[in-house]
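Listing S7. Sequence submitted for prediction.
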Amino acid sequence: MSNVDSSPSAVFRALHAPGRLLVLPNAWDAASARLIEDCGATAIATTSAGVAWAHGYPDGHGLPPDKLVATVREIARVVRVPISADVEGGYTDDPARVGELVRAVADAGGVGINLEDGSGTVDLLCRKIEAAQQGAAAAGVDVFVNARVDVLLRALVPAECAVAESVERAARYRAAGCDGIFLPRLAAPADVATVVAAIAPLPLNLLAGRAVAPGAELRALGVRRLSAGSLIAAAAYGRTRALAAQFLADGNPDSLFEGGFDYGQMNALLARG
């Protein structure tokens, strides 16, 4: 009999093992998550922007937390792989409420979260990380807490100080109990290698972008997680806008048949939920 832990939490942690690169094409609802799983994804991560847009809210703490929890629950109903939810900054500056949100996300089926510092203080995110771990414990779920460091994303310090500041913050977040570090806008290979070494043994998560190396190169540098962020959701909405504008202009449906997913296949994918 095998003693290997096959729980979603254990599987998700194993996907961050040294030498591996977890690629996450972020989803924004149950249908997109199921499609991404069907493409071979080993885990599903949500995009805060995509989830907010799908519910009619702007990204940037505009989404009511209950909508996020409902989205995680809907995704969990149709996929079988582990789920990680982007909870932004927890939608509050009250660490206790962040803990409550993480417990709700875990109860809904999530086994990971992204929790960002944004423009807040390092001390505040440390308290939120501690509260998140307490909320996960209350739910009885081993939640992987990915701490997002926004120094580069928000240009919080001069460019020449950004890597050092990010590493310093990562050390604080590790001491507070995070399980991984997410550094959007980190791209230069030398800087990536510096951060990978500085935060070890924690895994480094990067955000895909024009200046970011492809997966094979990132894995060679020691990166263990690569996220699409809002890019796929934005592309889907961009395509929707283009198709709708053309159809409104001339009523010609020809373009509506280009690149669409088969109706019967989509129904079949969701039937198992």
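Caption to Listing S7: primary sequence and predicted structure tokens for the chain studied. Strands lie at 22-24, 44-45, 83-86, 112-116, 144-148, 180-182, 204-207, 225-227. The mean pLDDT is 97.
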